Amino acid sequence: MSVPSVTIGIIDYGLGNRRSVEKAIEKVGARAVLTADHEQLRAADALVLPGVGAFPAGMELLRAGGFDELLRERVAAGVLLFGACLGMQLLFEASTELGGAEGLGLLRGEVRALEAPGRKLPHIGWSEVRPRGDSPLLAGLPDPSVFYHVHSYVPHPADPAEILGISDYGESFASIVGDGTVFGAQFHPEKSSAHGLRLLANFAALAARQTA
Length: 212
Hints:
Layout: E1 7-11, H1 18-27, E2 31-35, H2 38-43, E3 46-49, H3 55-64, H4 67-76, E4 80-84, H5 86-89, E5 94-95, E6 101-102, E7 109-113, E8 123-131, E9 145-151, E10 153-157, E11 163-169, E12 171-178, E13 182-185, H6 193-211
Parallel strand pairs: 1-2, 1-3, 3-4, 4-13, 5-7
Antiparallel strand pairs: 5-6, 7-10, 8-9, 8-11, 11-12, 12-13
């Protein structure tokens, strides 16, 4: 599996499986740059925002490093952005977690607790994702695909057209989202074997086309 030459900047803000994401991106044939340096991130063809943990802490770290404004700047310039797990949640306007916090606001909607009565939380393990629509981010993936999830909160996009994939755990929830420039996955693609690598390869290919 390989993609055209493209450089993907990984935001190193202190949260997430950053090295695992770096290795997965390199495995699909793209150049990965894991850095907190704004100029290196500005030079990248696309960006990835990883993340694990709580939404308020994630936003606090992004703001402390000036990454919130950097991400808004790059997205406004048309640079593709992919958020993974907590990184996906941070793309939205707000979360109710731990009393609530404002997000990046790059996608409209709110992140709320997963409604899973009688089931253990966090939701940990492999879950099917059913594609919705015909996004190039999902090219070549089977219906359903399986990805590795670890989370207790889920996004509720304001625009249903931005829901690209749906999973079920107690309730149906948006597991993949995107508006054509900003994309996200509630799962960890870097831990999701062949399907996760395919998703990252598709993102890299989109970035290569965008910069061609």
